[in-house]
Design goal:
Number of helices: 2
Distance between the termini: 63 Å
Radius of gyration: 24 Å
Number of strands: 0
Oligomer: single chain
Helix content: 25-40%
Structural class: mainly alpha
Order of helices and strands: HH
Strand content: under 5%
């Protein structure tokens, strides 16, 4: 069966998830020292999901292009 074009995931359109799996939550709690091997899974502490924002790259104008524009104006 084929997958509809609108359902395909593109590399640029991957969004951050707002829910972590249990294993991810436990690993994150271990990193911040709020989880031990004796802790129970029921009543686990909440974990904030890190949001990653990609910065847009600024376009760098070449000096040659800037000089050409100045010459055209004169």
């Amino acid at each position: 069966m084929t997958l509809d074009k609108s359902l395909k995931v593109r590399a640029g359109s991957i969004k951050t998830r707002n829910v972590l799996t249990r294993a991810e939550r436990i690993k994150r709690l271990q990193d911040i020292d709020k989880w031990s091997e004796d802790s129970i899974v029921v009543g686990m502490a909440k974990v904030r999901v890190p949001k990653i924002s990609l910065k847009k790259k600024k376009k760098v104008k070449k000096e040659d292009e800037g000089d050409d524009k100045k010459k055209k104006k004169k």
